[in-house]
Design brief:
Largest sheet: 7 strands, mixed
Distance between the termini: 69 Å
Mean pLDDT: 93
Strand content: 5-15%
CATH topology of the largest domain: Aspartate Aminotransferase, domain 2
Number of helices: 16
Number of strands: 11
Radius of gyration: 24 Å
Low-confidence stretches: none
Strand order of the largest sheet: 1-7-6-5-4-2-3
Shape: globular
CATH architecture of the largest domain: 3-Layer(aba) Sandwich
CATH class of the largest domain: Alpha Beta
Order of helices and strands: HHHHHEHHEHEHEHEEHEHHEEHHEEH
Oligomer: single chain
């Protein structure tokens, strides 16, 4: 170890928390500039001092990324990160525990187990009857849910495969469901034809009546058996929550597996003020929840919860002579209960923050960001913008009469916003129209940052209108 390098790294991490606010949110290096510098400085034909490499990487990261930890990053579900989480990730890298077998990393595995039991209870699940694991992210957790559902509904497929089934399994989603399910349909061999897209209501959430009609028609006309019904708690586009309790009732009547993709919105369970929006999640057969979204830890840290331990065991059980024997009847080897085999200590950073803040501290962070979302809606209204979508969660989609009247486009507004590099937002299509989207992703975002976003939007709107007028005048 080189003390000077570690001292420099600690210095950079320590100052970044305050310094990131002064950095441009967007990068100012082009692909050509980055490639030219890397090619010139790193031919890998001779060693370079680690201290020099460290300085280069710090400099490139400062200038060459979208700073998702910036309080004025109003983008996708990428958060600012808490100090305890950084410490946890460093410790996981330094000790490098191997979490395939309990006997190799009992401390790391029990730390994860303890953390997941706490979050199981937060979700309204019985920790003693729930299997829970950390995953690389939400896509992997969603995959585990579908594999567990297959093992639960069609246990014979573990040996015989899907080909022998008399009725084809189907996964019911909406256009707002995460598109990881498209990949999952391919990876599991179900095929994308197994995805049944259910319409949404005018409020852009799953239409429960349409779901019931589709299941009935599939069974009657197409010899299709409902395998999984997906409810989303916090859609990527607009932060909306499907009617989970109603979907749970439909799944129970249909004999289908009910999976809730709460990759982002699961954190609302920590807040008594927001818990009501998740009503019904406790009835899910499985749940996805990403700590690296709203729990302010570094990527990636997904979590998978399942009320059917036997289904999980059937889906992932394996036995081989090169793995150590089970350590005891009261322990579980992660490699036989997850899609992964070799795995790092993903959950250590989550444990560190949960211990650092406590549940009440986490609740305060979640509610603070929800309050900033409400403030953003109010400031947009005052500035003449209109919020689109009904959610108490801090994703705010919005439009403006200039957009509705096609005097400007979302692309033109974003182009000007990105040119100035003071904030980052995105746009999205909702029910056939493009709207702008802002999400409070940082626990550091305060009212001044929200005001800055409004100022940037207004500047961009006026600049886009002026450019459009100039172009029209010039063309005439």
């Amino acid at each position: 170890m080189q003390p000077s390098v570690w001292n420099r790294l600690a210095e950079e991490i320590g100052r970044l928390e305050s310094a990131v606010r002064e950095l441009p949110v967007l990068p100012d290096l082009s692909a050509a500039e980055l490639r030219a510098e890397l090619t010139a400085r790193y031919r890998f034909d001779a060693p370079r001092p680690l201290a020099a490499v460290t300085e280069d990487v710090i400099r490139l990261l400062r200038r060459g990324i979208v700073h998702v930890t910036h309080p004025r990053y109003f983008g996708l579900f990428n958060p600012s990160v808490l100090e305890g989480a950084i410490v946890g990730d460093v410790l996981a890298a330094a000790f490098n525990p191997q979490l395939a077998a309990w006997s190799h990393a009992p401390a790391a595995i029990e730390i994860e187990r303890h953390t997941l039991r706490c979050f199981s209870a937060v979700l309204g699940l019985d920790p003693d009857a729930t299997t829970a694991t950390f995953t690389a992210g939400g896509a992997e957790a969603n995959l585990q849910a579908v594999l567990a559902a297959i093992a639960h509904r069609f246990p014979e497929t573990g040996a015989a495969g899907l080909m022998g089934l008399e009725r084809r399994p189907a996964i019911y989603v909406t256009g707002e469901s995460h598109h990881s399910f498209v990949k999952i349909a391919r990876m599991t061999g179900l095929g994308t034809a197994s995805l049944r897209q259910i319409p949404t209501t005018p409020g852009n959430v799953l239409d429960v009546a349409a779901l019931e009609r589709r299941i009935e028609r599939d069974r009657r006309e197409e010899r299709i058996e409902p395998l999984v019904i997906v409810g989303t708690a916090g859609t990527t586009s607009a932060g909306l929550v499907d009617p989970l309790a109603e979907i749970a009732a439909v799944a129970a009547r249909a004999g289908a597996w009910f999976h809730v993709d709460a990759a982002w919105g699961g954190a609302a369970a920590l807040s008594p003020k927001l818990w009501g929006v998740l009503d019904g999640i406790q009835r899910a057969d499985s749940i996805t929840w990403d700590a690296h979204k709203w729990l302010s830890v570094p990527m990636g840290a997904g979590m998978f919860f399942c009320r059917h331990p036997q289904a999980v065991a059937r889906a992932f059980a394996a036995s081989t002579s090169y793995m150590p024997p089970p350590a005891g009847s009261d322990t579980v080897d992660p490699y036989v209960t997850t899609a992964q085999w070799t795995r790092r200590a993903i959950g250590l950073k989550v444990f560190m923050v949960l211990a650092q803040l406590g549940l009440d501290g986490y609740r305060a962070l979640i509610e603070r960001q929800a309050e900033m979302g409400d403030l953003l809606r109010e400031k947009l209204r005052q500035a003449g913008w209109t919020a689109v979508g009904d959610t108490p969660l801090p994703v705010v989609c919005f439009t403006h009469p200039d957009l509705e009247g096609e005097k400007v486009t979302t692309a033109e507004i974003l182009q000007e916003v990105y040119r100035r590099r003071n904030v980052w937002i995105s746009d999205v299509e909702l029910r056939g129209r493009r709207v702008l989207r802002a999400c409070i992703t940082s626990f550091r975002t305060d009212p001044s940052d929200v005001s800055c976003l409004i100022d940037e939007l207004e500047h961009a709107r006026h600049a886009a209108r002026e450019a459009g007028t100039t172009a029209t005048t010039g063309a005439s």
